[in-house]
Specification:
By secondary structure, the chain is mainly alpha-helical. The protein has helices at about 35-50, 60-70, 80-90, 100-115, 120-140, 170-180, 185-195, 200-205, 235-240, 260-275, 285-295, 300-310, 315-325; strands at about 5-10, 15-20, 30-35, 210, 215-220, 230.
Length: about 325
Amino acid sequence: MRKSTLGICEQRSGGFMVSHRDPSSQKRVRRSFGSYEEALSYRNNVSHRLAKGELANGNRYVGHLLQIYLDTNPRSTMTQRKNSFISFCESFNSFEVHQLSHEALGLWFESLREKMGYTNKTLHCIKILMNGFFKWLVAEGYLDSNPLDRIKYRVHKSLQRARVIMTEAELKDMLGKLQGFRSWVYQVVYALVHTGARKNEIRLLTWGQVDFATGYIQLHKTKNGEDRLIKMSENLAKMLESLPRTDRHVFLNPKGFCVSAWQVDDGIAALQEKYTDMKRWRCHDLRHSFAYNFLKKGGQLYQLQAILGHKNITMTVDFYGNLKATDIEKPSPFDF
């Protein structure tokens, strides 16, 4: 996306400056204010007037509306795919909002397919990421209907891979084999086994997130958008304390850099190739195995929700409520 036409500069000469481009003359307009609050109020007023068509000769441009949407929805997923987002901005920023028809968008999607070689599945994902912006345009009254609703991509859903659950004995055996095989992959996997965290939450862990005094690991910007604390087990704390601190990251590859996701996966695949009798597990299966063994040893679903970082208890019950049922010693209430 092009640089925003509105901005509040740093404090200069005892005041704050707001600059924006006049759409009619294309000249840069600058105004100074004595406080940040006054500058912000003026900026928001100009944004509102741009959106409502009071500036730019009554036209409502996609670029202006998109800037307002991103300012007011900082967690929007629209910018996650950088290439498609830039392409959308270059194609539609100068459009008036009523020109965002399903025909124009359909041609743009097909241009992405031709230029980038995207499949139906990828185009469908891009459409989902952009849908929030178009729903906002409809909700704010800029469009009567969502043009993306008329664009369909048939996606064949692959069969969901079955969960792999490992018992405590199987996990101990696996870790023992991995430690003697690739010790730096073992360190990551050991932390995953003892925390139930996601692969990237552990792989990207820094020393600033580990507090040995309190015994907690703090995970930042997790999947649900919130930070969470994980209590370290005694053995996990000992393992982490034994690691060298030559980098800000905790887990390093043999070259001394933060271990990459593919290096972890490659190490696991090599281990399973060497030991063919081992279950075919992935990193996320360690999370499932953590939940299974936690519940098996008397842990509660609400506790598991906090540890795994689920947004609500319903998600935890949907994923692991059936595992809790396996802990029942007498599944039938009858003795005959």
